[in-house]
Design brief:
Strands 3, 4, 5, 6, 8 and 9 form a 6-stranded antiparallel beta sheet that branches. Strands 2-10-7 form a 3-stranded antiparallel beta sheet. It has helices at about 40-60, 105-115, 130-155; strands spanning about 1-5, 5-20, 25-35, 65-80, 85-100, 115-125, 160-170, 180-185, 185-190, 200-215, 220. By secondary structure, the chain is α+β, with helices and mostly antiparallel strands.
Length: about 220
């Protein structure tokens, strides 16, 4: 006599996610120098001089990669007495900077401000071992999906069967809030003296796994 397990066709699908925190080993930022003047040519000339000073400063620092990334010239307005008023033209030049020693971040930002930088467009800490950390987070996410599936099956009085589908999920869009170490909004650097602590950064993994489930009602098979 052979005992046969009956698979329930619908199965069970579970989402699993995991977050590991790692120490960053580089910082990435986009900074901007700019000037406003009634004459667009003058505004651009002043901005080029500020950019030259910034570039000279960055070139003297070790473990830094930098390049100019965007040049713009636009009309500058201010809101006065319930109306927009033309005040001149703003010329700006952005630089993308990679800092390979995170202990130098505060010093480099302070030095950049002294040369004329007036805005930080974006800033983030990162890790050069992201691939390895992401792989671990994904393995942990698989384990989380298995744990959740086992718990459901125990409550439903069925047994967990084999995996029939694994779907990778973007972990940045799986919860009502997004935990991120990236700051993409523009920031005024006039108070850049405050300490910048890299702390740790999250590396996320997420997956959706579909399993077969097995009925505990065994049937005899001839």
């Amino acid at each position: 006599m052979i005992l046969r397990q009956d698979y329930i066709q619908e199965g069970i699908t579970c989402f699993g996610s995991a977050v590991i925190r790692v120490a960053p080993d580089f910082a990435s930022m986009t900074i901007e120098v700019g000037n406003v003047d009634g004459n667009p040519k003058t505004a651009f000339s002043k901005t080029k001089e500020a950019a030259r000073k910034l570039n000279t400063f960055l070139q003297t620092r070790e473990k830094i990669d930098s390049r100019s990334s965007q040049v713009s010239l636009k009309e500058e307005q201010e809101y006065v007495n319930n109306r927009w008023k033309h005040v001149g033209y703003r010329a700006s030049i952005q630089f993308h900077v990679i800092i390979k020693d995170v202990t130098q971040v505060e010093e480099i930002i302070s030095g950049a401000v002294e040369t004329g930088v007036d805005k930080i467009v974006s800033f983030s800490f990162g890790t050069s071992a992201l691939k390895e950390h992401r792989a671990l987070a994904r393995r942990n996410a698989i384990e989380a999906a298995f744990d959740k599936a086992r718990n459901y099956c125990m409550a439903a009085n069925v047994e967990l069967g084999e995996v029939v589908r694994i779907e990778d999920v973007n972990p940045d869009f799986t919860s009502p809030y997004r935990e991120s170490h990236v700051q993409n909004q523009s920031t005024d650097l006039s108070e850049s003296s405050q300490a910048i602590d890299p702390g740790s950064i999250p590396v996320n993994g997420a997956v959706q796994v579909t399993f077969k489930i097995i009925s505990k009602n065994f049937k005899e098979a001839a």
